[in-house]
Amino acid sequence: MLNTRPDPVRQSLRFAVRGRLREAVALAPDPQPRPAGAMDAADETAWAALRELGAPAFDAPPAADGLGLGLSASTAVGEELGRAALSGRYLAVAFAIDAAATGGAPASLLADLVAGEVAVTLTGFDRDSPPVRAKETGDGQLELTGRLTADAGAGTVLVPVELAGDRVAATMLDLSTVDSDTVHVDRVREPSGGVGLVTLAGTRCVESAVLCTWNRSLVPAGVLGRARIRQAAFLLGLSHGALVVGVRYATDRRQFGQPLRDFQSVAFRLAARYTEVEALRLAVARAAWLADTEQRYGRPAAEVLAQAAETAATTVQTVLQVCGVRGMTGELGVHRHYLRIRQEARRLGTPGMLWRELGLDRLRATPHRSE
């Protein structure tokens, strides 16, 4: 049975991370909207603060000089990053650490990841099929072909690559060092800006760039399942942070001589969103607990990420409706949550993709009965 009592270690980490992130945001204010996925001064300062705290080592295995605190620790960090609407770079680094430790990557790479020396961006995990295919060349290298999207300023990316035998590999690529003749980047202008299309045309990489693999035909647990739980915690934080902005605005804003929150049409909608956010909090805690206690967590990981994406979308929509046009400007700050949710709600799979994956898995597990 899930233990719902607060974990003192997790609580201590949460308060430490929250305090440092508040300092980071205060030192580098960013009142204006910015492209989704783009790093700004607050994000960079927050990442430096997390490195000082040793956050990348929280969930890393002891064999890699990590603390081995489990998903309960890394989800606490992810939630606090979401509350402040900061970049999810930490989540990508934690994914890479998991993958490198599982797949036996070079010790030097794992040490750099745990120390926070390598900035990683996740891309290509939002599709049913991997966007890149690999072909073995026979000389210890892979030839990559495909097209993927990348956040603004992305250098090192972790991308799913399709291998033979229905296998998927988490592959790390440094776009600044690969052969420029086989890589083409097109910057695409869209409402949130900053996203580019990266075309790989026979790009070569060493086989050691493959950090780990998993079976495409199954609902993944392991590295990808753990990453999905962290991403759900990040979206939980984004939902909570946006809701706090909405409640604060509804409390301060007065109409007809009374706070906006006293009107039932506003209060009921905010209360409904609060209930959904707290239900998501329990679901994230349960999924993390299952993973930390080495129980089956592949399906719960996919379920909680789909739930988190849907909750984040409905929550920020309600808050923007309550705040009106001010919510679309830098005055209230909810625009940061909106842009993050727009990008992060599909980072590791859209809700439709996740529910479809779960449905197919259920059909495979259910014996067919003849009429």
Record keyword descriptors for this entry.
Butyryl-Coa Dehydrogenase, subunit A, domain 1; alpha+beta; 371 residues; Butyryl-CoA Dehydrogenase, subunit A, domain 3; 10 helices; 10 strands; globular; Butyryl-CoA Dehydrogenase, subunit A, domain 2; eight-stranded mixed β-sheet; two-stranded antiparallel ribbon
What's the story with the biggest beta sheet? 8 strands, mixed
Reported by name, the CATH topology of the largest domain is Butyryl-CoA Dehydrogenase, subunit A, domain 3
Gyration radius over CA = 21 Å
Q: How widely separated are the two ends?
A: 39 Å
Number of separate helices: 10
Secondary-structure-derived class: alpha+beta
Number of strands: 10
CATH architecture of the largest domain: Up-down Bundle
Low-confidence stretches: none
The CATH C-level name of the largest domain is Mainly Alpha
Helicity level, as a percent range? 40-55%
- Helices and strands, in order, run as HHHHHEEEEEEEEHEEHHHH
- Quickly count the domains: 3
Beta-strand content bin: 15-25%
Give the rounded overall mean pLDDT.
84
- Tell me, briefly, the overall form: globular
CATH superfamily of the largest domain: Butyryl-CoA Dehydrogenase, subunit A, domain 3
